[in-house]
Amino acid sequence: MAVPAISIQKLTKRYGTSRGVDDISLKVEKGEVFGFLGPNGAGKTTTIRMLMDFIRPSSGTAKVLGLDCQKEPTQIHKRVGFLAGDMEMDPRMTGRQYLEYVSNIRGGVPWSKVQVLIDRLQCETERKIGKLSRGNKQKIALVSALMDDPDVLILDEPTSGLDPLMQQEFNTIIHEHRKKGKTAFVSSHDLSEVEQICDRIGFIREGKLIAVEPLKALTKQTFKNVRVSFAAKPKPSDFSKLANASDVVVKDKTVTLKLKGDVTPLIKELGKHKLKDVTMQDANLEEIFMTMYEDLEVQDA
Questions:
Q1: For labeling, which of 64, 108, 129, 189 is most exposed (least CB within 10 Å)?
Q2: 223-282: CATH class
Q3: What is the pLDDT of residues 217-249, one digit of tens each?
């Protein structure tokens, strides 16, 4: 059996009586782009710091490429490209000086490889880092993580501060990384970003991993947003009675609702009315994510 790129077993981190992460288990396969999603404070960064051995777990284990994160962190660091969500760089150095420094640490990455990334991400390398904007600092940090074409990327909020064009270029780089059979573990609260690049998604909430799903399956098994315009104002009960409809709102001659599963009951009901317009769209990942959280909050209440 192939060794997973990342393997986490019952990983827990507590800070005194406070919760960091609680009993997380998951595997990320080689050649996979895995999205690790959750709101701020959910435990994403804590998990990543344990993968990099920057902090130690209270219990449980974590491995990267079969290497134990606590026992073999140096070997892991040689094979991982890492981007912290709060990346610190010496503000007195220029972007070029910093990247030359990282290149040397990484064993002497050919500058030609670094320059390709600089050009693709349109980095400002001649100015001091302390004078750069948030987005330009982020591009320098991304180059430092990507420069030696590592086997695994562990990236915490990688597109923070990037403009849409650079976000798209980053997505292209990640797709190329995956085509080489390499792995990326991407932590983010930007759901649209993850939707564009990831194969599977893990949702973390209050330190607990609440769901891990393939992106395609996740979007197929959820709901559609429906908006219908009528020639005459309909009765709300005509649609709230549908077993797979929820959040039914009637405003003037327009009905909006969420629909799960089979559309046939809705189509039959619409056939009884004179319609002006119908739109039906699959929910995006953000809507799915928020619905999952709302459902869990109801269960916890």
A1: 108
A2: alpha beta
A3: 776 667 889 999 999 999 989 999 999 998 899
